[in-house]
Amino acid sequence: MSAVACLRVLVDDNRTEVPSEALGPMVAKYTNLFLEVRWTLPRSATPLSHYCYLLADPRSTELDTAELAMLSQDLQSRLFGAGAEDGVQLALFEGEPEAISLFSSMSGEAVADAMRDPSRLPPGTRLRRIAEDGSLIDVPERASEPAKGDFQPPPSVGGAQGVYLATRQTFMGDVVTTTPLTSPTYHSVIDGQAHRPPESDVFDMACVTTALSFLIDFPGEAPLHLPVSFGTLMRPSQRQAYIEMLGVLPAFMRETLAATVYDTPRIPTFQAIGLVRATLGPFVGQIGLRVRDPDFEIQSLTNKAFASVTLDLPDAGLEVRMAALRRFAGHMKDYRKRRIWPGVGNLRFRVERELALELGLPFLSGPGICRMQSRPVGARTWTFRDLPLLSLPIAKPPALAVA
User: Fold this and answer.
1) pLDDT band at residue 35, thresholds of 50, 70 and 90?
2) CATH of range 3-138; options 3.40.50, 3.55.40, 3.30.70, 1.10.150
3) What CA–CA distances, in Å, run from 60 to 35, 81, 118, 292?
4) Cα angle at 182 between 233 and 348, to 5 degrees?
5) CB 6 within 8 A of CB 52
6) CA distances to 143, 150, 234, 236, 240 from 146, in Å
7) Best exposed site among 39, 76, 136, 177 by fewest CB in 10 Å?
């Protein structure tokens, strides 16, 4: 029986001066050279992306990982120079062809998350890290969980962050969030990685409860955006639990709800796109995607497949963030062709807001647009010069009538 697995190259792009748009092709170039010389016939190596290769060895039941470990050292030297450590890691993924296709489309951040929490991977698969000596190290096992039954969110506080429509200088809706009382910082899917929830599936379901509370306490016409991880929707058990949670929402409220699918990979498969729409479509009025790659393959989507695609700017220096903003805006003609609105999230600074406005990006979000609020801010007019919205003004009580 042949040995078949997917090799994934993980690069710490925060430690190299190579621009993000050039890093992938550079990794692919050096990896191809290495495999052409060392991974000889009858073994095969098929590129799946700049960072992924499908490896096969018909003569063995296991791949020679000791030989592959040398690739890590070679890339380390070429990308980071002598003396650098831990800038490159290699991982080996095993599963069915469909699972391998899904894995190859995952972002580097999503793969790193899966190495810390294997439940983020498709069921029936295995992910291991290749150590320097070529040995295979299992990623940490997730502790067994008790049966969930009815979902009970931990004690937490709900919040909302407005999404700003620049052309009308109005908050057109809110992204819902929920933060456990024990958390050292608030949770948000639009304020950068430091605020991402550690357990996305628990967070996603808790946000449904928060949204229901907001719909009852603050009824309005501006949509509430439910955050849901792309990974939650791809894993059958978590997807089913999320569907059951959405089922508690009254049907008449669903037109006031939208979904924002965060951690969407750069090139989602056709099957994954269909699954997202089929899962969320019956429960919300519109669906948007949140991505981290400014070169998201908008061409992979059909016309009006989703309401919007929002780029969440990287947690990096201002120059890197501004470059990502410009690169994303460079694809706006493709978004117009697909009739899908582009947006940008994790905006922090005035200069970023002004550049987004100059580039014509309509939907803006992040701490530089609206800080965390205890209630929705949607449908409120707010002039561009007064951003960010730090807190809602306290409503004055009505004056008493004088007899």
Assistant:
1) very high
2) 3.30.70
3) 17, 34, 26, 38
4) 70
5) yes
6) 10, 12, 21, 18, 17
7) 136
